[in-house]
Amino acid sequence: MEELKFIMEKFAASDWDLIAVPAQQWLDGKVDKNALVSAVKQADKECGNCGCELDPLYKRALELMN
After folding, report:
1. Three-state DSSP class for 10?
2. Which residue in 16, 47, 55, 58 has its CB near the most CB atoms, within 10 A?
3. Would you say 40 and 58 are in contact if contact means Cβ atoms under 8 Å apart?
C-alpha cells in the first residue's frame, strides 16, 4: 500500500487535473476505486507513452489497485 500511496502522491503533485484531482481525493479518502481506476486508465491512454516520469506509474498503479 505504501507504493500505491507514493504513486498517488506523484500524481497529485502533477499539474494535470485529470490525474491530480482523483489522486488527491484518493489520498484524502474521498474517491471511489472505480473513479480512480478510470482516471488512471484515461491518463495512461492519453499520456502513457510520452516519456515523462509518470508513464510507468500509470500501469503500476493499475496493477496495485487490482
Report:
1. helix
2. 58
3. yes
Alpha-carbon separation of residue 51 from 27, 32, 59 (angstroms) = 25, 28, 14
Cell of 24: 488527491
Name the grid cell of 45: 491512454
Amino acid sitting at position 6: F
pTM of the model: 0.92
- Predicted confidence at residue 57, as pLDDT, reads 97
The burial class, CB within 10 Å (0-12 / 13-18 / 19+), for 53 is exposed
Q: How many CB atoms lie within 10 A of CB 58?
A: 23
Instruction: Round to whole Å and give the CA distance between 19 and 21.
Output: 6
Contact 18, 43 (CB under 8 A): yes
